[in-house]
Amino acid sequence: MERTLPDGATYTVIGAGIHGLSTAWHLAMALERTGKGSGTDIIVLDKTGPGAGASGIACGCVRNLYMTEPLHAILRHSVDVWMHDPVAFGFQQVGYVSAGEANQAEEYDRMTASQNAVGYPSTVYHGREARDFLTTLWPDFKTDRIEVVIHEHLSGYAGTLQAIAGLAEKCRQHGVRIFAGVEVTGYDRQGRRVSAVETDHGTVRTDAVLLCAGAWMPNHWALFDLPDTLDVGYRDGSFVAGKDMWTFWRLLEGEVYHDRAYVTAGGHNPPVLHVELMNTPVVNEETGQEIQDNTYVYWKNGNERMDRPGLQGGTMPIRIGPKAALEPYGHANDAYQADPWFSAYLPSAMGALMGRFEGHMPQFRERRNGGIGAFTPDNVPVFDWIQDNVYMIADSNHGFKMTGVGKLVAEEMVGGETPADLKPFGMARFAAGQAYGSGVTNCPWV
Ligand SMILES: Cc1cc2nc3c(=O)[nH]c(=O)nc-3n(C[C@H](O)[C@H](O)[C@H](O)COP(=O)(O)OP(=O)(O)OC[C@H]3O[C@@H](n4cnc5c(N)ncnc54)[C@H](O)[C@@H]3O)c2cc1C
What we know:
The protein is 24% helix and 28% strand. The protein has a domain at 1-91 and 157-227 and 379-427: 3-Layer(bba) Sandwich (FAD/NAD(P)-binding domain), CATH 3.50.50.60. By secondary structure, the protein is an alpha+beta fold. Strands 1, 2, 9, 10, 11, 12, 24 and 25 form an eight-stranded mixed β-sheet that branches. A seven-stranded mixed β-sheet has the order 6-7-5-17-20-21-16, sandwiched between helices. It is globular, with a radius of gyration of 22 Å. The two termini are 37 Å apart. It is built from ten helices and 25 strands. The mean pLDDT is 96. The chain binds flavin-adenine dinucleotide (FAD). The site of flavin-adenine dinucleotide has 37 residues, from helix 1, strand 2 and strand 23.
């Protein structure tokens, strides 16, 4: 880690999570490629260090299961980045399988068509074909409620700490300097331009700021005196006045031990599995009591998260509101640990879906597990300039998977043109009646 903060840098990246590091690395490569500079023009500042935010605790699932179609192209770029060096990033391209009831069938058809249209191959199965597909991979899958399945061939999962270490290493290889323990406390501004970034270690003059502050984004938004609320127009013609710009949600994830290898019928590491059954409750398999009136669960091999073999999974996040206690972050924050009911929910849902997980409630791994994210007004990322020389990557907590955003933002920084695939994610959509946010799901990640 670098020690002496310079008094000036052409590009200042704030935040050493997945977005800050990917953007810095790609910007360094783009500057070199175009002869406009190099990684030595870039510094990354993090108040704690690489992976101190959500990027260091994410489940690591890389999927394209979005009803918001412009995200499909973003994931195409992201998988290109993951596959650039899958070993360095711990990326396992095992695929992603999502299963639903009949009410989601049309959405799945739309998603499959859109994913394939941007070169992200996926296959949709209906009815008996869907059930057969699942039992071919997992013979003990209890498929009675399943009517539709999507199989994303390029998706998978990554090791979170490994990905951060890999990206930080890429940055260093290109001369980017990463400073840990340097907190940005303010911005020196002339009108809509930032001339310097103020930190607890001194002031850094800069030409451009790349703001990649994750859950802390609302703090930076406030430093720019931007409004707490805005009017949001949706594509269906509806309109909400005075919506919160930022809403915090907390994630519920955990681990379940499983002493046999979790593999497919063919002996392979299975695809990440996601099941949303909007009309099927989750019942505590020991007491028979209903825990939730619908099922939303995902899991994959636990890998770097586990101290012995097991699965890592989760369910839908829970809304907190426009304010949240950010410090301490993640597993260290008592206020945002997974709820007590979750230790029954995850293994019960798994057991209800696959025979091999029946009776696994005692196998739930009791440990601290929690994390929060700042969501945008329509729960879809905002990638845009928020001052003349400040670019914000606010992924609405979707974004461990979105390493490709940094590649696209780097193109814009060096080339001056907004890449077509970034255009749908500007702030202007809210006033223009182009906000996203509909879809047949109970989940805010649409
Ligand atoms: C429990 C959990 C599980 C998740 N699982 C998945 C998943 O499976 N798949 C997926 O795609 N996404 C997942 N996500 C979402 C994903 O992790 C985040 O969207 C993504 O990591 C955000 O990356 P980031 O770089 O924007 O922010 P972060 O990783 O939060 O990085 C922001 C950094 O900014 C630094 N910072 C903030 N303010 C300042 C300041 N003033 N000065 C200096 N530094 C500052 C912080 O220290 C932090 O390191 C999950 C999130 C959580 C919480």
